[in-house]
Design goal:
348 residues, mainly alpha, 15 helices, 0% strand, globular
């Protein structure tokens, strides 16, 4: 079909609908990064510097929704951030996992890491059932507690067909509680009758996010930090088989929202996660030498994409539903985290 031309200048006439859609797409993405920037700035202030950029941005996005409502005109770009950028961030997250180091030095920690994941998920879900808490949020919190916090929640959420608001609530809770536990560990460190290495292992197998492990283990010294991160990476390594296990369960029992289609979409982003892990472990720094600045830059990009994605999810949260849906899962997850810390201390 020939292009339509204007009578005046014979230039092709652009479709207003396409132009408008593109503007909303760009505007929505920009909006999520703007709130991510506000979260970054808030995280630089006293008090919030322990909470972190991710949780700060989620809090801002939730408050924005309550006071100004959901920005419908920017929905296209916001949804892109919450879906596509989220998967992209998880793929980049794979660079944090050094497979060679885990397989060479961390095999002895695998058994404990596996036990921690099973314990966290089973106990959280069981307590949630006793409390009659929201099943999806509780399951996501169990996964986040057992594996690697927000990244694990983000990876499992699409598999179990979690609602965006439930995912955002779970990520916010895991960031907040994990920070509280990390700070508590640093306070307890001088009074604990364990070595620096054991303290590092304890932090690595029991805390929620990699950032939480780094925060807690650093006061124990470089050795404690190194072994703590190694123990944590073992749990990250187990994220992929855990996701495929959930896929199998979903297909067999249709776990999740009964009103939705139970067909499970293959999580292709996990393949990207594996590929990036291989590249980060065996290509970057060996076959292809890169600078520390490059690695740090990729890490920063990952953090910003993940934060922008969580802003998109946070805009779906209603404080009214947050009060009714989050309290019981928070209690279940909090009790599980306490029990996990005690158990981990005695198996170190």
């Amino acid at each position: 079909m020939e292009a339509e031309y204007s009578r005046i200048n014979k230039e092709p006439i652009q479709s207003p609908k396409k132009t408008s859609s593109f503007g909303k797409w760009i505007g929505g993405i920009g909006f999520t990064f703007l709130i991510a920037l506000l979260g970054y700035l808030l995280a630089k202030t006293p008090g919030f510097n322990q909470v972190g950029q991710l949780a700060s941005a989620i809090m801002i996005s939730v408050l924005y929704r309550q006071f100004f409502g959901y920005p419908e005109s920017l929905r296209l770009g916001i949804v892109f951030s919450s879906k596509r950028l989220l998967r992209f961030a998880i793929i980049l997250y794979g660079l944090k996992l050094n497979i060679g180091t885990v397989l060479q030095d961390g095999l002895g920690l695998f058994v404990r890491d596996t036990g921690v994941i099973i314990f966290a998920i089973v106990v959280t879900v069981w307590l949630a059932r006793m409390l009659k808490a929201d099943k999806n949020i509780s399951l996501l919190l169990g996964v986040g507690t057992g594996v690697c916090g927000a990244a694990a929640i983000a990876a499992v959420a699409p598999i179990i067909k979690s609602k965006d608001e439930d995912t955002a609530i779970a990520v916010g809770i895991i960031a907040l509680v994990g920070t509280i536990f990390a700070i508590t560990y640093t306070i307890l460190r001088p009074f604990l009758p364990i070595s620096e290495i054991d303290y590092g292992i304890w932090s690595g197998i029991s805390l929620h996010e990699i950032a939480h492990v780094a925060l807690a283990a650093a006061p124990g010294g470089q050795d404690a930090l190194a072994i703590g991160l190694l123990a944590k990476l073992g749990r990250v390594f187990l994220l992929v088989p855990l996701c495929f296990l959930f896929m199998y369960i979903m297909k067999r029992k249709g776990f999740g929202d009964k009103s939705s289609d139970t067909k499970v979409e293959f999580p292709w982003f996990l393949i990207g996660f594996i590929i990036m892990s291989i590249i980060g472990s065996y290509v970057i720094g060996t076959t292809i030498p890169v600078s520390i600045d490059f690695i740090n830059g990729i890490s920063e990009l990952t953090a910003w994409c993940l934060t922008a994605a969580m802003v998109g999810l946070g805009l779906n949260v209603s404080l009214g539903e947050l009060r009714t849906k989050a309290l019981k899962p928070l209690i279940a997850m909090g009790v599980t985290s306490i029990l996990l810390s005690i158990l981990a201390y005695f198996i170190v």
